[in-house]
Structure formats: C-alpha cells, structure tokens
C-alpha cells in the first residue's frame, strides 16, 4: 500500500470524503489517505494527525516525498488535539482502531468538532461504541459499509449531525448493515457467534462464581441476538 494505491478499506473510507472537504485524518500513520485524496484532486487541504513519533516522522517524509507540503500539514498530537480552529476542518477520518478508542477520541476532542460536518470512522472491533457515542452527542449514521480484506472484516460508519434513535439490534449490528445483511455481514456474525459458543462451553465447565454467571448470561444474550438476526 502507498498513497497511489490504498488498501481496500482505506479506499472505501476515501470514497465517503466529499469533494472539496477540508480533512483531518487522525492516526494518519504514513499519511497515505490524505496524500491519496490530494493526488486525486478530491481535496486540496488536509491535516495528518499522529500521536506516535515514529508514524509522525513517516507521515512527514511521505508528504515531502509526494510534494504535498503546501497541502498537508502533519502534526504530532493526541487525537483531535492535532486540529486547530484556524484549519477550518469540516471532515474527520479515524481508521484502523478499536471502536471504543475512536469513541474516546471523539469524546475527549468534542470541543474541536465545532466546524465539522462529517465524521468517517473505520473501527476494527466493537463498532457499537461509535453508534452509542453518536446517539449521545447529536450525530446520526448516514451510511455504513462492511468489507473483508486479507481475511479480516472491517466496518465503516459515516456520521453527520442530527438526532436518531436506534433499537438494540441497530446499535449492535448497524442500521444500514442490518438492512442489507451482506454475505460479509453474515460471515462476521457467524464467526462471532461460534467464538461466543466456544467460550460459553468453557465457562460451563468452570466454577459458578457470580462473575462467571454474569458472563455466561451475557454470552447467551449475544448468541440469541445473533441468532435472531441471522434467521430473520
């Protein structure tokens, strides 16, 4: 992967960035995503934010190598602290992290979201954390995507400002993904259910503490939810 040819998941993330957007890519790594968007003339300005020194240096080198130093500002900062009000950022991408971490980045940096119209997230796990954050903070899901690349399954959740209420199934599985129920969606939740059944089987042989009892009840509920979704 490079800034000329992105991975499938980052290409999908890029597709949700609107033409002319001012982007902040948080956890930008090598800054491949903003470089790709500049190269393809979809945007003209971006912030590449990194909290780790190594990837920050890699991003700076890559931006310089591509000749995009006038278009992309690389900043070392924790989450949305890399964004300044004067940047005029209206779109944020956060890809390749766990859902709870993405939600915490958005929550801790909520004061930086004043001018932001769209948030594009690509959680690796626990995507429901992002949906919960959205509902609690005045954002609505406008699109979702699920895809498989190199044996791993990824979700993309796109948010814009608004109010929405989602039921238990929509929060867990995603309102758009639940409606579509693509083959990748079915594969993901069959995998999850199989793993939960394996863990439940192990716990059935363990002691009967309150903690184990609660965990078993939680797993049974998760398995039952997946069963409802996959059989309907």
From TrEMBL:
Instruction: Quote the Pfam families the UniProt record gives.
Output: TrmK
In terms of InterPro entries, this protein maps to: SAM-dependent_MTases_sf (IPR029063), TrmK (IPR006901)
GO MF annotations for this entry? tRNA (adenine(22)-N1)-methyltransferase activity
This chain belongs to the protein called tRNA (Adenine(22)-N(1))-methyltransferase TrmK
User: Could you tell me which species this protein originates from?
Assistant: Sporosarcina thermotolerans
């Amino acid at each position: 992967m490079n800034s000329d040819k992105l991975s499938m998941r980052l290409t999908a993330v890029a597709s949700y960035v609107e033409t002319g957007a001012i982007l902040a890519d948080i956890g930008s790594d090598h800054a491949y995503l903003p470089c790709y968007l500049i190269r393809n003339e979809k945007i003209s300005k971006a912030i590449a934010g990194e909290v780790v020194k190594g990837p920050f240096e890699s991003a700076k080198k890559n931006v310089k190598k591509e000749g995009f130093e006038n278009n992309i500002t690389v900043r070392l900062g924790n989450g949305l602290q890399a964004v300044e009000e004067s940047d005029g950022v209206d779109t944020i991408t956060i890809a390749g992290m766990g859902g709870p971490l993405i939600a915490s980045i958005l929550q801790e940096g909520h004061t930086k979201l004043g001018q932001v119209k769209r948030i594009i997230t690509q959680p690796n796990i626990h995507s429901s954390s992002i949906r919960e954050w959205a509902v609690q903070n005045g954002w609505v899901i406008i699109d979702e995507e699920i895809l498989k690349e190199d044996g791993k399954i990824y979700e993309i959740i796109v948010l814009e400002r608004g109010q929405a209420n989602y039921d238990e199934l929509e929060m867990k599985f995603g309102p758009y993904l639940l409606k579509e129920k693509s083959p990748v969606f079915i594969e993901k939740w069959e995998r999850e259910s199989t793993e939960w059944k394996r863990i439940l089987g192990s716990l059935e042989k363990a002691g009967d503490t309150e903690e184990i009892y609660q965990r078993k009840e939680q797993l049974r509920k998760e398995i039952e939810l997946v069963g409802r979704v996959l059989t309907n």
